[in-house]
Amino acid sequence: MSPQACINAGQIELALRVFLHYREQMRKGEYLGNFDLMLLLALMRLGEDAYGVTIAQELEEQTGREVVIASVYATLERLQERRMVASRLGEATPERGGRAKRYFRITGAGLREVRDARRSLMNLWKGLPELKGEEA
Amino acid sequence: MTTNQPPRIATWMLKHFGSGLNNDVVLGDLVEQYRQNGNAMWYWRQTMKAIPVSFFRDIRGHKWAAARAVLTGWVLWILYVTTIFPLITPNFFGGNWGVELDPRHPVGTAWCGASRWATRYRSARGIPSRHRGRNPPA
Q1: What value of ipTM does the predicted structure carry?
Q2: Scanning every residue of chain A, which has its alpha carbon at the shortest distance from the alpha carbon of B62?
Q3: Please, what are the domains in chain A?
Q4: Dihedral Cα A69, A75, A80, A82, nearest 10 deg
Q5: Does A95 touch chain B (CB under 8 A)?
Q6: How sure is the predictor about A19, in pLDDT bands with cuts at 50, 70 and 90?
């Protein structure tokens, strides 16, 4: 193997670090996804009683679809990293097999994001004709 | 008939194969919901989906550690193929594997070695080859 073709581990490490850094920077300006927005709205509706079971039930009631509880936590953890959501560990109860609940609440940054998303969506809806059946 | 206890195997699987800080909290939620609906199929579905969700969530949360693990695995693999593999092969079949060890292609080398070993094993035991005509016994 020629020396030119040899890529050492240090170069690979540096390239990966640069890639992850830029990806992280791009993610900071990301729009809210559909599920993100639904979760934030569910947190607003539930208030103090927002934890895995109640959030999943709220989403199922409103959307008519089954929700994977693990996905709820995965998304909420991601939103927590973006400081849109805060959480605290609750009490352990016998009906949960002695396991604790994790309560979530929306933060000021989360509220701002929801308002921005609402405004953007409303602006987009304004220019559209009335929906009749399944045709626009 | 529904019991108060959720399916044990599903719980065990999520407990041992699930990962992340909230794994225990997710289990608690599933148990609580199961005691309300008593639906074992629902519980199985949720636990089987929770395992890959937590796995990919962990990788996403620890990208650098995951990349390092993959890199370490490859380094160990290459070391094995270039140093340990040639050392141990003389102990099997007199060292004549009929495979040219090429460290640049560790997967190909290992695959050729494994298939050659399987062919010799079958012929030594008198097991007919699955690829008649293409893989004559050595």
Answers
A1: 0.73
A2: A20
A3: 34-126 (1.10.10.10)
A4: -170
A5: yes
A6: confident
